[in-house]
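Example record

The entry below shows one chain as it appears in the dataset: sequence first, then structure tokens.
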Amino acid sequence: MQPDLFADTRSRIDLGPGAVLLGGFALAEAEALIGEIPALAAVSGFRHMETRSGGRLSVAMFNCGETGWVSDRRGYRYQAIDPRTDRPWPAIPPRFLALAAGAAAQAGYPGFVPDACLVNRYDAETKLSLHQDMDERDHSAPIVSVSLGQAATFLWGGLSRSDRPRRHRVLHADVVVWGEPSRMVFHGVDSVERGTHPLTGPCRYNLTFRKAR
């Protein structure tokens, strides 16, 4: 396991070509970012989406933005309408957009303007298996992933599912950014640590920004 990453923008780990973990990058905005989540969830609430096989994703989630990622028996895709409400997803808050653009620029991707933000809520020991973000039409844009609340073990693999992943402990306000040539790297979350964070309680929130269209 990697040593703890102090909540400090001076902490930076290069994960691979075009990929970086920015320790504490979102610290100044973290409380305000978390404060936006209840209002967004009131429009499109957290839900455990269905998988192709009829199972249920363990991570609770919803989207904001012009389009949102959904999963059901029909498969994985992006769509502009929330299937639960039959209404558009809530807009990405300006504070979210500014943080995503700033982190992308810090990682070497200036001008990043996401059109989708997936808001994930992890409970203690919730896992997300290794996967690639491949449902987006635009694979030239980076992905920006913001961790808020409880610490978790982030898995960073390779371009093949069989590649052994490295484990990085991500803390509150850490941001991971990756793009070409690491855009299709397999990644996941092994576990969320038990405990109580002063801003999120026992949960970890993750904001994942993408250019999907």
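Notes for this example: The helical segments are 30-43, 94-106. The longest helix spans residues 30-43.
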